[in-house]
Amino acid sequence: MKILVGVKRVLDPYVRAYVKPDGSGVDLSNAKMSMNPFDEVAVEQAVRLKEAGAAEEIIAVSIGPAKSEETIRTALAMGADRGVLVEGERNLEPLAVAKILKQIVEEESAQLVLLGKQAIDDDCNQAGQSLAALLNWPQGTFASGVELEGETTKVVREIDGGLETVELDLPAIVSVDLRLNEPRHASLPNIMKAKKKPVEKKAAGDLGLDLEPRMKILNVSEPPPRAEGVRVGSVAELVEKLKNEAKVI
Amino acid sequence: MAVLVVSEHNNSELLEVALHAVTAASRMGGPVEMLVAGSGCAGVADTCARVGGVERVLLADAPEYEHHMPENIAPLIVGLAEGYSHVVAAATTYGKNVMPRVSALLDVAQISDISAVFSEDTFERPIYAGNALAKVQSADPIKVVTVRTTKFDAAGIEGGNAEVENVEAAVSGEGSRFVEQNLSQSNRPELTSARTVVSGGRGVGSAENFRMIEDLAASLNAAVGASRAAVDAGYVPNDYQVGQTGKVVAPDLYLAIGISGAIQHLAGMKDSKVIAAINNDEEAPIFQVADYGLVEDLFTAVPALTEALKA
């Protein structure tokens, strides 16, 4: 079985996002970039499935600027076998990403697609579900458990009320949540090996797909800051403030 | 053209999140209609019919819809969407699961997790864990929108007198089967709609110690939340998690206990009206957003606070 994993290059999760003064977006110049943390979990899951003998090959796909190759190399160092980089200059919307992934999934005849449930930059939480719709495949979103059982997969989903388990016929899409596993750190020898693994490059514009943005970003702003708070010296003072000043208890 | 709200329910009761989505929908221009898809859910449709401002309720009642599987529900919504300017749902795990499937089948871009409606095609949505707000304008003929429920008040279940119309079940999706749900049982108020939330973090130390947080919450009639660290450590189940990828809450009072205040946690609670934090680390970032900060060991402060509130 072939597994396809999507990996997105995003602002590092431990770095604060700053809005550009002209309101055109978030300033990413010179910012530390990393693999989307949810995608790391997806890569880890794919590698574990391969290690358990349930998959033969893992293809890591990234869609974005040329530097996304670094993100693919990270996935290769973690254990993916080869990469596909779809270069697109502008920020592609999740619908466009789903269309591109559909084409690659079909070319590769992948049986399982593992994606992060959401990218921590645009926070859209769409690509996996949209890809499943375009392929007419079943989906298991927000997964904290994935088991392969022959021609099906059992997915435990983190939902608002607790946990839900669904069974999906393969091929299927699984979007992963953070508690599915703890991603490994690539070892130095594996990082070296990853440099030699093949990465195929394509241009998004050459795929013959309608990738036009449907949304115009009119403005990006910082949310209004909270008024500065005060330190209280004791539990009694806290209770007094909450009761008489804030009037919330 | 009308705006269709996809209602979230458990086949017997309408969930409050749907009422917040109705309020957002009512700002998008046209009259508001609601879809109730489920099994044995006619009572939910009757509730929707009484929601103020709702003009029509579509009821798709079929056994295939019992578990609200997206493979089934999405084609149903797509079949109905033609007649609407917007299709709207709450940005809950239900809405997030089904709506991007709908938008892809309609070949439109979903507008996720909106926090404000400026006009029929222009919305605000938080990005980068809420560290930036994007004002976006959609060019799509049908707008598929999910709504951040804390940013819109709940519509009242009163004043409405809508017709309930049955709609045919669509072709059922194949390839997915519901196995089971394990829902957390709690006698505390629901996290996303509670007026007071008490959350515990890694500092609480264990599942056993978390009882202290529960006791404090009980004395305030508050819901109990947690940071990702506390959930990852197994102190509480996943549905307690507040944050960028967990639940977003905006209560009147958010009490953060032993929570350091990572960006990802702040994303889920910084719209709370009043934030109070107790942490023994005076450098903890949570104090930067707290209206009231108490630097004290939580193991002495929390029992004392619970006692003081009982008095």
Please describe what this structure looks like.
Chain A is of the alpha/beta class and 249 residues long. Chain A has a single domain, classed as HUPs (Rossmann fold, 3-Layer(aba) Sandwich), CATH 3.40.50. Chain A has helices at 37-51, 68-78, 94-108, 127-135, 188-194, 235-245; strands spanning 2-6, 9-11, 33-35, 57-64, 82-87, 112-116, 139-149, 152-159, 162-169, 172-176, 199-203, 215-221, 230-232. In chain A, a hairpin with a 2-residue loop joins strand 8 (152-159) and strand 9. Chain B has two domains: 2-166, Rossmann fold (3-Layer(aba) Sandwich); 196-310, TPP-binding domain (Rossmann fold, 3-Layer(aba) Sandwich). Chain B has helices spanning 16-25, 42-49, 70-81, 93-105, 210-219, 228-232, 263-266, 286-289, 298-310, and strands spanning 2-6, 32-38, 54-61, 84-90, 111-114, 116-117, 122-127, 132-138, 143-147, 163-166, 176-183, 196-200, 223-226, 253-257, 274-279, 292-295. In chain B, the strands form three sheets. A seven-stranded parallel β-sheet of chain B has the order 5-9-4-1-2-3-10, with helices on both faces. Chain B has a five-stranded parallel β-sheet with strand order 13-12-14-15-16. Chain B is elongated, with a radius of gyration of 21 Å. Classes of the chains: A alpha/beta (249), B alpha/beta (311). At the A-B interface, helix 3, helix 4, strand 7, strand 8 and strand 9 of A face helix 3, helix 4, strand 5, strand 7 and strand 8 of B. Strand 13 of chain A pairs parallel with strand 16 of chain B, so a sheet runs across the interface.
